[in-house]
Amino acid sequence: MPRVLSEWWNNLFFELQSCEQIESAFSTLSRASQDLGFAYYAFGYVSRTPFCSRNIFIKSSYPELWISRYREKKYLEIDPVAKLDSGDLTPAIWSEDFFAGAKHVWDEAKSAGLAIGISQPCWDTRGQFGVLSLARNDLALSSDEIKALRPFLAALGHLSMSCISTICERQKHTTTDISLTRREIEILRWTADGKSAKGISNALEISVDTVNFHLKNCMRKFNASSKTSATAYAIAYGLL
To answer: Which residues belong to any copy of the HTH luxR-type domain (predicted)?
Structure first.
């Protein structure tokens, strides 16, 4: 385990800044997990959009046979790691109690070499939720090790979310081509607060036609069917 958190964090942070592909970032993060004493690393997050059918991204260094089995049996639907409370950032220790509702998943994971594990919920600055998991086949986690791991897990979770989600969005071109003017941001913020076009025009001392002009521009940029939808996407993308 790294002796100096600040040095470890800085080195990892700057190395990840140069990563432009998921594979290179994942390789770097996997090495970081080994620094913490774990042979395996996994990270998953839920995309911010589309709102009604959000995409789930999962990347891991788990054994290939286990990954295939996990997908084949759709274990994601019952895996307690995937059901961690987004409002609680306390790391979850893998145990019989933790997997009480999916004992067969736990049994198979142990057979695959994932006997000891810990999962860290994490958020990014735009409200996107993910989970980092570290696993190994032996050496049970002691209370002292768990206590020592806490700051490292938080750091690695933050880096994983920031780096991987940014690369994914860049590759999909979801936000890189979208920019809002100062006035558009202002109007969308008033819209988010529930103001009508007339109310916004009064607040900003501009005409209703001008308000609607800017709202239509925002709808076009987000390919949204309404001002409400455009506002929701702007919030989801962290533009407001």
So the answer is: 173-238
